[in-house]
Write a structure and sequence with these properties.
- There is one protein chain.
- This protein is α+β, with helices and mostly antiparallel strands and 95 residues long.
- The chain has one domain: Alpha-Beta Plaits (2-Layer Sandwich), CATH 3.30.70.100.
- It is 38% helix and 33% strand.
- It has 3 helices and 4 strands, in the order E-H-E-E-H-H-E.
- The protein has a 4-stranded antiparallel sheet, covered by helices on one side.
- The longest helix is centred in the N-terminal third of the chain and has 17 residues.
């Protein structure tokens, strides 16, 4: 079954760091055959609190999504963003 990364940002305090992170994170996603389904973009809140950014990435398998997150390349990207954004980051198995 496919694996999905669902990342809902609560706050972003430095857009430049987010851009730097995004470049490195995209390369790590591609290394694990991930495909961005949602990466920011226009949105409308129907229920709950607003979020400045939501990202959804599809991977061939749940294990691929886990391996992506644990990879050296992704962890290096994450280190750039650390302290500049608060978010909820989940890896979810598809149906």
């Amino acid at each position: 079954m496919k694996g999905y990364v669902v990342c809902v940002y609560k706050s972003i305090s430095n857009e430049d760091k987010l851009k730097e992170y995004a470049i490195k994170a995209k390369a790590a996603v591609e290394n694990y055959n991930g495909k961005f389904l949602i990466r920011g973009g226009r949105f409308k809140i129907n229920e709950g609190e607003s979020s400045p950014r939501t990202v959804v990435i599809e991977f061939p398998t749940f294990d691929d999504a886990k391996a992506f997150y644990q990879s050296k390349n992704y962890q290096e990207a994450y280190a750039i963003l650390e302290g500049y954004a608060k978010r909820q980051f989940q890896i979810i198995e598809g149906v």
